[in-house]
């Protein structure tokens, strides 16, 4: 920590440019060698560990891209913030958080947390709370998943976004730990539906995006649920505050505290190697590099975000 130097918030900084992003990317490219591509979902293990992309959407909605920006990867846990937004908009925050906590965590993303003892998931960012959140979205069969997919398409203004059937099938076939959580919550009455609801969670995790799509999602929550092109169909300052606060508290799981200290921005990672970042009232950042650290967060992705934050004084603190 002592070695980190930050730009002063008031200091003159060079404007964001693709050249500036590219030099940050190149500086951090080699970090992939220090991590590992997730393979507990077998299909994810096929990802190219060397792929790397960096994208920023500035306050005006202008997009800056560098690296493998056309490379698609699955959102995985980043889909949890979209599902939370939809559940809260439908049911109201009080009804959703009656069933789970606002807690931070010292536990990994797939930990059962206090499901057995207190009975409720710690937060909507860890798998248990996220599976429950998706089950709270109204509609039969695939409908809740389709709502998540449609919302991702809306936020990114990218109708070509779809989910990867092979990643979905792979997780459905191997996701027994998530299945265990699903049934514990069904047993305690928190979940009332059938396994279609778990499938909707697996499907939403398999939605394929690019780093640019993630930057646009970051922008959306940074700007009171206003889309990067100014569309205000879903504008809602309170929902955005809730999502950003959960991202800050638990979006990087047990690394969230240290991440808050070093980066200081609401962020959400996924084991596909993406991280989406909101710079409140300002920009969105999207990174991609599938080699993960011990917490399941993108190794090079974290370092690219950290360098951008240091260079431009972006921490909220
Ligand atoms: O449920 C799972 O394990 C995955 N579909 C998502 C986990 C995840 O992305 C954790 N984030 N870093």
UniProtKB/TrEMBL annotation:
It catalyses: L-glutamine + H2O = L-glutamate + NH4(+). This is Glutaminase. The keyword Signal applies. GO terms for molecular function: glutaminase activity. Substrate binds at residues 77, 127, 171, 178, 201, 253, 271. Its EC number is 3.5.1.2. Homotetramer. InterPro entries: Beta-lactam/transpept-like (IPR012338), Glutaminase (IPR015868). It is an enzyme of class 3 (hydrolase). The keyword Signal applies. Keywords: Acetylation, Hydrolase, Signal. It comes from Chryseobacterium phosphatilyticum. PANTHER family: GLUTAMINASE. It holds the Pfam family Glutaminase. Belongs to the glutaminase family. NCBIfam families: Gln_ase. GO terms for biological process: glutamate biosynthetic process; L-glutamine catabolic process.
């Amino acid at each position: 920590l002592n070695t980190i130097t930050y730009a002063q918030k008031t200091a003159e900084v060079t404007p964001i440019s693709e050249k500036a992003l590219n030099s940050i990317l190149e500086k951090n490219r080699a970090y992939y060698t220090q991590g590992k591509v997730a393979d507990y979902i077998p299909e994810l293990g096929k990802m190219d560990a060397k792929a790397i992309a960096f994208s920023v959407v500035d306050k005006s909605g202008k997009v800056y891209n560098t690296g493998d920006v056309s490379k698609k990867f699955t959102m995985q846990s980043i889909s949890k913030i979209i599902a939370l937004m939809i559940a809260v908009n439908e049911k109201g925050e009080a009804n959703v958080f009656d069933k789970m906590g606002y807690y931070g965590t010292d536990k990994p993303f797939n930990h059962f947390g206090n499901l057995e003892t207190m009975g409720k998931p710690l937060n909507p960012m860890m798998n248990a709370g996220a599976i429950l959140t998706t089950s709270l979205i109204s509609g039969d069969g695939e409908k809740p998943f389709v709502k998540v997919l449609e919302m991702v398409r809306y936020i990114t203004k990218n109708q070509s976004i779809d989910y990867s059937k092979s990643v979905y099938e792979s997780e459905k076939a191997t996701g027994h730990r998530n299945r265990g959580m699903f049934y514990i919550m069904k047993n305690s009455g928190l979940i009332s539906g059938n396994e279609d609801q778990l499938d909707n969670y697996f499907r939403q995790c398999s939605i394929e995006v690019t780093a640019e799509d993630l930057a646009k999602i970051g922008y959306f929550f940074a700007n009171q649920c206003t889309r990067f092109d100014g569309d205000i169909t879903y504008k809602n300052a309170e929902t955005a505050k809730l999502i950003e606060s959960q991202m800050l508290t638990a979006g990087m799981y047990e690394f969230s505290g240290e991440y808050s200290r070093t980066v200081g921005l609401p962020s959400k990672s996924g084991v596909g190697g993406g991280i989406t970042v909101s710079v409140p009232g300002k920009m969105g950042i999207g990174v991609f590099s599938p080699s993960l650290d011990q917490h399941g967060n993108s190794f090079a992705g974290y370092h690219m975000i950290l360098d951008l934050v240091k260079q431009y004084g972006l921490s909220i603190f």
